């Protein structure tokens, strides 16, 4: 069983606007969640997984939980029309059906839980971790959210590197923020465009149980490029981490003939 965050944010198309609450209420009423072709982790969703639903601005809170009643599937034209409710804002090519839906009377405010959520490394700039539609969680983080409590044990996801000290995390977080603000002035050896997927900007891109610091594409070759920021970790550990990301991208995002490479930015 896997655990997921499904993120819903405000949508605007052709002058029409739907709030996050509008979208959440409609989708849960349909017992269905729409997905796009480029939704991160779309292909990994399977029947029996558990999902918690995050509502963006202005609430910025977790609002519901449900079980996936199906694997991710491609909608028929009839299903696309039915679930669209006559508006392009709800039209989806893919989706999952939901069951055992529980809408909480009191939402769980994200800011109250951030100190206890291990997948959020950069605590000051946590918003990037809620971009992109679907993000995988560890069981311990999922329990923190649904129980609204601190974890009782500290665990690492499979393949995750050991925790480094707080000063090292701070240095990486500051470098990440600097690069985010100055992206167009950085020389990577070739022109890199950050990968866009739904509301995802390429920063802290959700890749299975991991977060890629920056996922990009090379404007010249079209190849994927992983940009990973590191401070205080051994080189073999860092290279192994980047190789895991590359493997995930090749399996889930890359088209035939499209290559993936990594860039390690070290302080």
- The CATH H-level superfamily of the largest domain is ph1033 like domains
Stated plainly, the CATH topology of the largest domain is called ph1033 like fold
- Rg calc: 19 Å
Number of domains: 2
Sheet with the most strands, sense and barrel status: 7 strands, mixed
**Highest-level CATH class of the largest domain:** Alpha Beta
Number of helices: 6
**Could you say which overall geometry the principal axes of the C-alpha atoms support?**
globular
Describe, in plain words, how this protein is organized in 3D:
This protein has helices at 20-30, 77-84, 110-113, 139-147, 166-181, 235-252, and strands at 3-8, 11-13, 16-18, 32-35, 50-55, 61-68, 73-74, 94-109, 134-137, 192-194, 203-207, 210-218, 224-230, 260-266. It has 267 residues and is an alpha+beta fold. The chain folds into 2 domains: 3-147, ph1033 like domains (ph1033 like fold, Roll), CATH 3.10.590.10; 166-266. The strands form 3 sheets. Strands 1, 4, 5, 6, 7, 8 and 9 form a 7-stranded mixed β-sheet that branches. A hairpin with a 2-residue loop joins β11 (203-207) and β12. The longest helix is centred in the C-terminal third of the chain and has 18 residues, at 235-252. The protein starts with a strand and ends with a strand. The model is unreliable at 150-169 (pLDDT under 50).
């Amino acid at each position: 069983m896997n655990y997921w965050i499904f993120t819903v944010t405000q949508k605007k198309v052709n002058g029409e606007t739907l709030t996050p609450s509008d979208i959440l209420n409609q989708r849960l009423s349909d017992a269905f969640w729409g997905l796009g072709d480029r939704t991160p982790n779309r292909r990994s969703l399977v029947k029996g997984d558990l999902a918690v639903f995050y509502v963006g601005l202005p609430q910025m809170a977790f609002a519901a939980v449900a079980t996936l009643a199906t694997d991710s599937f491609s909608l028929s034209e009839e299903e696309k029309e039915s679930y669209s409710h006559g508006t392009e804002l709800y039209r989806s090519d893919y989706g999952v059906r939901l069951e055992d839906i529980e809408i909480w009377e009191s939402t769980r405010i994200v800011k109250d839980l951030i100190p206890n959520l291990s997948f959020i490394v950069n605590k000051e700039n946590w918003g990037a971790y809620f971009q992109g539609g679907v993000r995988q969680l560890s069981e311990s983080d999922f329990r923190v959210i649904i129980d609204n409590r601190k974890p009782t044990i500290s665990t690492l996801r499979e393949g995750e590197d050991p925790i480094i000290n707080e000063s090292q995390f701070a240095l990486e977080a500051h470098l990440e923020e600097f690069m985010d603000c100055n992206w167009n002035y950085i020389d990577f050896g070739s022109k890199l465009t950050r990968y866009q997927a739904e509301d995802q900007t390429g920063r802290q891109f959700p890749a299975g149980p991991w977060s890629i610091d920056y996922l990009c594409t090379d404007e010249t070759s079209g190849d994927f490029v992983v940009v990973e920021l590191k401070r205080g970790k051994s080189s073999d550990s860092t290279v192994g981490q980047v190789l895991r990301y590359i493997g995930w991208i090749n399996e889930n995002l890359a088209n035939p003939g499209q290559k993936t490479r990594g860039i390690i930015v070290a302080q």
